[in-house]
Amino acid sequence: MTAAVIPASAPGTDGLSVWPASTTRLAHGGLAVAGVDLAEVAERFATPVYVLDEGEVRERCRTYRAAFPEAEILYAAKAFLSRAMARWVQEEGLGLDVCSAGELELAVVAGFPPDRIVLHGNAKSPRDLDAALRLGVGRIVIDSPSEIARIAAAVGPDGRQKVMVRVVPGVTAGGHHKIRTGTDGQKFGLSLSDGSALHAVTRVLAQRRLELTGLHCHIGSQITEVKPYVTALRRMVGLMARIRDAHGRVLPELDLGGGHGIAYRPGEAALDITALARKLRGELVEACAAAGLPVPRLAVEPGRAVVGPAGVAVYRVLAVKHTGDTLFAAVDGGMSDNPRPALYGVRYAPRLIGRASTAAARTATVVGRHCEAGDVLAAGVELPGDVRPGDLIAVPVAGAYHLSMASGYNMVGRPPVVAVDQGTARLLVRRETLEDLRLRDLGG
Ligand SMILES: *Cc1c(COP(=O)(O)O)cnc(C)c1O
After folding, report:
1. Beta strands per DSSP E along 195-263
2. Which of 31, 362, 399, 422 is most buried, with most CB under 10 Å away?
């Protein structure tokens, strides 16, 4: 990549604020990420393709470590996991959060130390628990009363497993009702207000095979304000004080979960991680002093904020249609590689890449290729009026909950993941092929 580049932060480069920091404009109208022309990635690996900026992921891990020097940072693998991703996160000093035997085993195969892994899940399968105990995960987060005896039995008479209890602190936060998990009336955790959290803690403490290290909460996702975390923190410290009063036990850990919000479109708010860290630290010290508790070790579990902004999805336009007043640009992917607009009404800012256009901008709707009218990637966005088949369209902020939520719909096959770093591109996860799909189908 030798073309002249203009840094994304230079004046006149509006609209690139949500792109990876390494993004540069190329003289011919294209865009490069980490020194790699996205049009070249599209040529070499075909489309649709997810591009992941390794440096951006690492930099985001470092931002967390610098903001929370005393806390444990656990990357939430469900946002995106591959063996390379597990390695980057580990090298940057983070732990890992998993919710299934699949995520757990992939991470361990990649060399991730099991004792730095936490297993979550509101309905852990026998296979999940078996893998957790066999591989020796650091902590298992108990999410329902029935798990207590189940885990204790699975641990066996000579074992001892570290566990936490997931508490619902009664805090409403999160970008969409489907991703709010901090209040009663949703499936996760044990209620603080009705006493079921304290009751579960009492039962865990009675199990010699379980070592309760602390409390956990995760109030939602895509949260852009510090306040709900502060409210949750105070309530959690209150519960820790009640546990001390009732049982004489001081818990050494407090995990406040993830959910840190990011901007998907220019001008949108993102949670300020440094401000969050500073505020939580101060509040924790204060609340613990007031309750006469030693300050527990804090843990946070960001997923989206670590990997979301590091990813870009690149599509090729297959068809352009004018229906009524709407210009539809249909691309070669859609809801099978990004179900988020259909699930949560998330809005993205796609842009034409790979060529310069002098045509006036038009309001357009970028749709996918799937057999659903709801297969819309982005409605009401601005694209050059001369957008045509063969053009490349890139969607930034595609690193989290894209591939990990991708499906086999229409047997299109899930896209590959290409890492870009210092001017080179390499394949991390290959494209799902017809052969992959055929092999699973036994023909009987
Ligand atoms: C999903 C989840 C996370 C990560 O959420 P993000 O919004 O990606 O930061 C962290 N902890 C738990 C328990 C989760 O379920």
Report:
1. 210-216, 253-255
2. 399
